[in-house]
Write a structure and sequence with these properties.
29% helix; 214 residues; alpha+beta; four-stranded antiparallel beta sheet; 10 strands
């Protein structure tokens, strides 16, 4: 599995937009142009460019088409390679694998009130957060774990976060067993991946990519 991540850069914004059109063509989806903030536009574009970079570098795939499942999860057409993209604050991350995977990254916002989300937690999850030394860190560990799991499952928000509980880095959703693993990407961010495959047996190549490499 390969996990690539990149930080947005304002001075490279026009370069990135031009690169996007160069890679995907003038008729490609230009939804990023609707964003009012350059940060949001670049986050959206970099996810696709990271995927393009990773597929070419690690899987020798240079031409691909992305379709969307009935549940709204993007997938590669005609390739048995899977991907998932997430972004938060100034960071974009893309996981590419030979099996379905979900990834989530969150900026550690210490101004957040985790109690606003307690109705989405089980009693045990809320108790673990409340008994931890750092409530915010514990909350974001919980949140990235849950988000990566529902992304790996592919059903998205149709699955209530409160409907399953994680124990020993694994859980079951709709009678399917899933495994999770925390990734230490940056001290200000929490990141987690999830899959049906036992991730403790999987080599995960984590690589920071500079915009100039893309």
């Amino acid at each position: 599995m390969n996990v690539l991540y990149v930080f947005i850069e304002e001075e490279k914004h026009h370069y990135i937009l031009n690169k996007y059109l160069e890679i995907f063509g003038e008729n490609s989806d230009k939804k990023f142009l609707k964003y009012r903030k350059w940060q949001d536009a670049q986050l959206s574009v970099l996810g696709r460019i990271l995927l393009k970079y990773g597929l070419s570098k690690y899987y020798d795939i240079n031409d691909f088409k992305i379709n969307v499942s009935n549940n709204g999860k993007p997938f590669l057409q005609d390739h048995q390679i899977y991907f998932n993209i997430s972004h938060s604050k100034n960071l974009v991350v893309c996981a590419i694998s030979e099996f379905p995977v979900g990834i989530d990254v969150e900026f550690s916002n210490y101004g957040i009130d985790y109690l606003e989300f307690c109705d989405q937690m089980t009693k045990n999850e809320l108790l673990r957060i409340q008994e931890s030394e750092n409530h915010v860190e514990s909350f974001f560990n919980y949140w990235t774990e849950k988000e990566s799991l529902i992304k790996a499952n592919g059903m998205g928000l149709q699955i209530p976060l409160k409907s399953f509980e994680i124990c020993n880095h694994q859980t079951c959703i709709s009678n399917v067993k899933y495994f999770i693993k925390k990734l230490d990407i940056h001290k200000e961010y929490h990141c987690c991946i999830a899959a049906e495959k036992d991730l403790s047996t999987v080599f995960i190549n984590v690589k920071k990519v500079n915009i100039g490499e893309l």
